Amino acid sequence: MIRHIVFFTVRDRADLDRVREGLTLLADIPHSNHWEVSPNLNADKLTEAPVDLVVYAEFTDAAALQAYKAHPLYQRSIDIVKPLRETRIAADIEAAPA
Fold first, then answer.
1. Do residues 58 and 2 lie in contact, with contact meaning Cβ atoms separated by under 8 Å?
2. Distance between CA atoms of 53 and 19, rounded to whole angstroms?
């Protein structure tokens, strides 16, 4: 299983709801086993790095993740979110076997 975690910082706090709406489009892409977007509950106490929103998704394998990224709604979300975000940091990790 692949865990896909993406951190977003919004340039202008007034755009936070619009960014979240743009990210929520991704929930309609059928290739994930689990998908959510949530506000960050607190800033990193060591670096004080701001993170406004976190996308977390799980995929069966790398092919499912690639199909997700190839879906037209993925590009539509990028078109909405990219001009409004300051930072995007993405990580894809393979989940350890249970």
1. yes
2. 9
Alpha-carbon distance of 62 to 70, in angstroms, equals 12
Amino acid identity of residue 16, one-letter, is L
Q: Please report the pLDDT score of residue 52 as a whole number.
A: 93
**Cβ–Cβ under 8 Å, residues 6 and 82:** no
Residue 10: the pLDDT is 95
Q: What is the pLDDT of residues 20-62, one digit of tens each?
A: 999 999 999 999 999 999 999 876 677 777 899 999 999 999 9
Three-state DSSP string of the chain:
CEEEEEEEEECCHHHHHHHHHHHHHHHHCCCCCEEEEEECCCCCCCCCCCCCEEEEEEECCHHHHHHHHHCHHHHHHHHHHHHHEEEEEEEEEECCCC
Confidence (pTM): 0.89
